[in-house]
Amino acid sequence: MTDKIKLDIISDVVCPWCIVGYKRLEQAISEMGIQDKVEIEWQPFELNSNMPKEGEDILDHVKRKYGSSPEQWRDSQSNMLKLGEGVGFEFNFFEGKRIVNTRDAHVLLAYAKEMGKQTELKMRLFAAYFTEGKNVSDREILKEEVKRVGLNLDEAMARLENNEARERVLSQESLWKNAGISSVPTIVFNRSSSLVGSQSVDVYKQVLADLLK
Prior knowledge:
This is Thioredoxin. The chain contains 9 helices and 6 strands. The protein is an alpha+beta fold.
């Protein structure tokens, strides 16, 4: 038995709100000094599960999916830059950036969980995509990130060719969607309650404090 708070964080590595929300959660946990009282597991969610391998230009994507104009996109990215600064994360948005498929990334994150390095790899993938402008659907890029966090490269890459491993990711995605989760980030506490969206540090502190009582 464990008295740790189980945090399932449903997210995608190309979701800017997901990293902002996590950094705020991380700050709340740190300020409360309860790092040893929480257990985090990242759960897969694909914002664009049908995205082809070549991806899609970001301006075309936001117009098609959200009806946003280039000016609206620039305004939203300006706001996101400020939010990133507030949590110590660097966003680098640029026209020509591409939205990509993230299924391979989620397969590798499941492997990293087994090796005790899931959060470390997740942070690297966020930084690779948002800070460094890398294509996190490119397997050569994924190889670099796997090596950077000290995972076994051969084992990790073999997972990408393993149909059962890929099916497990799809099964997990379906599980959370069937539970009613349709947007990210969503944090589920002890598999019983949840918060949707990027909340403030104080909100996370309040929820965690209540759970520790």
